[in-house]
Write a structure and sequence with these properties.
Helix content: 55-70%
CATH class: Mainly Alpha
CATH architecture: Up-down Bundle
Distance between the termini: 56 Å
Bound molecules: protoporphyrin IX containing FE
Strand order of the largest sheet: 1-2
Radius of gyration: 19 Å
Shape: globular
């Protein structure tokens, strides 16, 4: 058996920080009131994490790169028919790819609409002042209905899929997302996960966080305050 580093530390930290923030976002949205300030802060954190993950999809460790799990329809169909390739047991398999991209897109839509949303009580997204009232209502409607339901459905499906792989296919995906490694019969490349690549990830995330800070500030006028 070969031990392969699948998820580098930055990808694992990205995942667990994202999961915690999304849980916090659903809780703060439901509690409401002054917790909406934290809803916004957690939302900005999610945006910085998503931007980081997009950059990391090009420069990250082997199995975190989009090119390592970008499959066409024929590969998805072949996988569904039971023709799994050895690398499918290491990085994201073709079904995992669909779930990852769907989660990333739906999260990006949720944050983007959140930036323009208004609860008409005490909290308004930082960019709402830049667009018409109609756009604010549409963004809020999407954020509260379709977006929320899509996201919750995808997360439930995501966790169920992990359990199905564990119990039915006897494949422990969770272990690799916690500790980073998988044991496989075929020799396959390990993801780079050195001190310098981790430092690079930290720098990329810092730049993404600065970009989010800048975007959030765009809607601030002297009269609208913080
Ligand atoms: C991925 C990130 C986000 C998630 C998962 C999320 C999730 C949610 C959920 C589940 C609701 C409750 C809808 C309801 O049932 O009433 C909500 C409401 C809201 N969110 Fe977000 N949100 C995110 C980002 C943001 C951001 C960045 C902002 C703005 C800074 C924002 C602003 C709001 C507002 C203003 C509401 C209240 C809408 C209303 O009740 O009228 N959200 N969000
Ligand atoms: C709100 C909660 C969650 C969100 C938004 C989320 C999102 C994601 C995303 C975007 C990925 C792709 C990782 C990447 O390539 O960067 C992923 C992978 C993964 N997630 Fe989650 N996740 C959540 C909760 C969970 C939970 C609770 C578990 C544990 C049961 C979990 C276990 C995993 C595992 C094992 C993978 C790797 C799957 C594979 O090997 O293909 N996630 N998740």
């Amino acid at each position: 058996m070969h031990t392969i580093r699948v998820w580098d530390l930055p990808t694992r930290l990205f995942h667990w920080a994202l999961a915690l923030c999304v849980i916090g976002l659903v809780v703060t949205a439901n509690v409401g009131g002054s917790w909406m300030i934290w809803h916004g802060r957690l939302g900005y954190t999610v945006l910085s994490l998503l931007l980081f993950r997009i950059v990391w999809g090009f420069v990250g460790g082997h199995w975190s790169r989009f090119s390592s799990f970008l499959y066409g329809p024929s590969a998805v169909l072949a996988y569904l028919r039971g023709n799994a390739r050895p690398e499918h047991r290491v990085g994201h398999n073709p079904l995992g790819m669909l779930s990852v991209f769907a989660l990333l897109v739906v999260l990006l839509l949720q944050v983007s609409t959140g930036l323009f949303a208004d609860d008409e009580i005490a909290f308004t997204g930082p960019l709402a002042s830049l667009v018409s009232g109609d756009t604010v209502s549409q963004a809020t409607r999407y954020h509260k209905s379709v977006g929320k339901l899509l996201l919750i459905a995808l997360v439930v499906l995501h966790v169920l899929a992990i359990l199905v792989y564990k119990w039915i296919k006897k494949d422990n995906l969770l272990g690799a997302m916690v500790l980073g490694d998988k044991q496989v019969a075929t020799p396959l490349p390990s993801a780079r996960d050195s001190a310098s690549s981790r430092l690079l990830a930290l720098l990329i995330w810092a730049v993404c966080a600065a970009a989010v800070y800048w975007v959030v500030g765009l809607g601030q006028t002297p009269s609208s305050g913080g």
